[in-house]
Amino acid sequence: MDFLARLGLSIPLIQAPMAGTSTPALAAEVSNAGALGSLALGAIGPDEARRQIADLRARTDGPFNLNLFVHETPRPDPAGEQAWLDALAPLFREYGAQPPAALETIYDSFAGNTAMLEVVLEAKPAVVSFHFGLPDPETISALKAAGCLLLGSVTSLAEADLSLAAGIDVLVAQGWEAGGHRGMFDPDARDDRLGAFALTRLLARWGKLPVVAAGGIMDGADIRAALDLGAVAAQLGTAFIACPETSADTAYRGLLASDAASHTAMTRAISGRPARCLANRFTQFGERPDLPPVPAYPRTYHAGKALSAAAKAAGEPLYGAQWAGQGAPLARSIPAAQLVAQLAAELGLTA
Ligand SMILES: Cc1cc2nc3c(=O)[nH]c(=O)nc-3n(C[C@H](O)[C@H](O)[C@H](O)COP(=O)(O)O)c2cc1C
């Protein structure tokens, strides 16, 4: 498959969907500049998804990607979750707040989610992408029948095999360097922590599906290296966070532009799944040896978001979910269209 021709792209670049940070304005600017813009629908419901898709469509006629989280639906564990809330309680008290009385499942998986499937089928986007797992065969068939190209995040060859068997068209090879949530299907499985380039090369040699490289890719030289390793494109998240079109708050932008960007950490403590974040007070807390087991994703995130909000309201930004990849010091604070044009120029292309 000629990936760029199929989608009508002029640069082998996907703006990563970034739940909580990417916006319709960002995706539209990227798509209008000749790359693929993405909307993150993983952490919102069908009504908000419809609103964001309409907003995006009003801003671009270009192709775009709708991204969904296909994690296992969590089971409540009252005793374990209470122990976790008790461990967090002193932090809440430091900011004059209380932890939630109990954890809740703050958003639904796309697995078996007919309401969200309806939204996506109505929209018929050029691309649909999955993170954390794969939908059932009926859902895959319905999306393919609607003409969508299906992308799936993988962190290992085993997940690539599962994706091939499920009918995924293109793999997003997410390396250990990547910002945000690690897309591994089972967060409790053994993790070989493959880097983006090792994984891209392994999957290119495996050769059964086209590969998009993701993780730590920040400039044209990085994209060129990924293409040289056999990728058809690169997916960049952290590179776009500082663009004015994202919803990143002032503190997040400030940290990205400071020495703090040089330090990232993989933590489960914020959401319940491993995710790479700028090293901050929350990631430090997650390293404490005396913590009870972290509850399931995204129930843990209920408390994580509440603590971030309480600390922020009291003037402490360092409990935020400030997701970022290892290339964070190279993030550029320029409009998205300009960033795409610069990346194209660095690659020797004109967008
Ligand atoms: C702030 C942020 C939010 C993210 N949210 C999502 C998401 O909603 N869905 C998804 O598939 N990937 C998400 N990711 C991961 C990206 O798809 C991608 O794997 C990662 O950004 C690549 O690494 P990089 O950040 O070093 O470029 C997110 C990444 C970041 C930085």
Based on the model shown, name its key terms.
globular; binds flavin mononucleotide; TIM Barrel; 351 residues; eight-stranded parallel sheet; single chain; three-stranded antiparallel sheet; 39% helix; alpha/beta
Largest sheet: 8 strands, parallel
How far apart, in Å, are the first and last alpha carbons?
A: 21 Å
Share of helical residues? 25-40%
Bound molecules: flavin mononucleotide
Number of domains: 2
The first-level CATH class name of the largest domain: Alpha Beta
- In the CATH classification, which architecture of the largest domain applies? Alpha-Beta Barrel
Strand order in the largest sheet: 1-9-8-6-5-4-3-2
Order of helices and strands: HEHEHEHHEHEHEEHEHEHHEEHHH
Radius of gyration: 19 Å
Low-confidence stretches: none
Structural class estimated from helices and strands: alpha/beta
Overall shape:
globular
